[in-house]
């Protein structure tokens, strides 16, 4: 995303005071515009369809339609950044499967909130740092649906370079960090990530990170990365 583009955000939270605080913080940030507010999941979906924001900041627990179901409806055309108290219940796991691009704790400070919105709008994923390992570990350990395990045939369809990028996603690296590690342009990294999501039938890079963790646990090993520019394609 270029610096001169305004990031359009929809804020969905059933607590009026929390919602007002989020709107205040985001509205004061340069390059971010809050285009709508919703107090329940149904309204969030309706406004997202109408306004087509870049990012939807979505509470997990809301009346009429919970945040997971709303995220599933919205994630096809907007990036969803979930707000949670983070007790690792079914809402959180469901949001991952629904295609959420990231998770923030409700006690996030203003600077981190703004940074997270910018990061998600740029195509990267965000998970609150202090719970990243716990979330990934718990999600992988549960394996509630055997069909959700990595499909060896789908993984085999990845090119050697895509396998390297896929492994980096599993380590929680951003596009910029992946580009630096694999000595290629960041735009090339974004292309690889998009192709990986398409080949594996995933909706977000967070899903890809979880799958990469599970694949590693199942013995998936990417090719050794080249250290020079020759490995950039």
UniProtKB/TrEMBL annotation:
Keyword DNA-binding: yes
Modified residues (4-aspartylphosphate): 59
InterPro entries referenced in this protein's UniProt entry, alphabetically: CheY-like_superfamily, NreC/VraR/RcsB-like_REC, Sig_transdc_resp-reg_receiver, Tscrpt_reg_LuxR_C, WalR-like
Limits of the Response regulatory domain: 8-121
Keywords: DNA-binding, Phosphoprotein, Transcription, Transcription regulation
Residue intervals of the HTH luxR-type domain: 151-216
One Pfam family, short name: Response_reg
SMART domains to which the protein is assigned, alphabetical: HTH_LUXR, REC
Protein name as catalogued: Response regulator transcription factor
Species this protein is from: Actinomadura keratinilytica
């Amino acid at each position: 995303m270029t610096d001169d583009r305004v990031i359009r955000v929809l804020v969905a939270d059933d607590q009026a005071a929390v919602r007002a605080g989020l709107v205040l913080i985001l509205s004061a940030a340069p390059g971010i515009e809050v285009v709508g507010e919703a107090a329940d999941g149904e309204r969030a979906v309706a406004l997202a369809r109408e306004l087509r924001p870049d990012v939807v900041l979505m509470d997990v627990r809301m009346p009429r339609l919970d945040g997971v179901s709303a995220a599933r409806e919205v994630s096809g055309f907007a990036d969803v950044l979930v707000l949670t108290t983070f007790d690792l219940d079914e809402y959180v796991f469901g949001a991952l499967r629904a295609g959420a691009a990231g998770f923030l704790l409700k006690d996030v400070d203003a600077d981190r909130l703004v940074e997270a919105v910018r990061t998600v709008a740029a195509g990267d994923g965000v998970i609150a740092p202090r719970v990243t390992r716990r979330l990934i570990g718990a999600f992988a350990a549960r394996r509630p649906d055997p069909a959700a395990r990595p499909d060896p045939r789908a993984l085999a369809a990845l090119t050697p370079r895509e396998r390297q990028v896929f492994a980096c996603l599993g380590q929680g690296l951003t596009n910029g960090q992946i580009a630096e590690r694999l000595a290629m342009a960041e735009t090339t990294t974004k292309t690889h990530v998009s192709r990986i999501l398409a080949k594996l039938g995933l909706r977000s890079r967070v899903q890809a990170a979880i799958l990469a963790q599970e694949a590693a646990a199942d013995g998936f090993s990417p090719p050794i990365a080249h250290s020079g520019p020759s490995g950039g394609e």
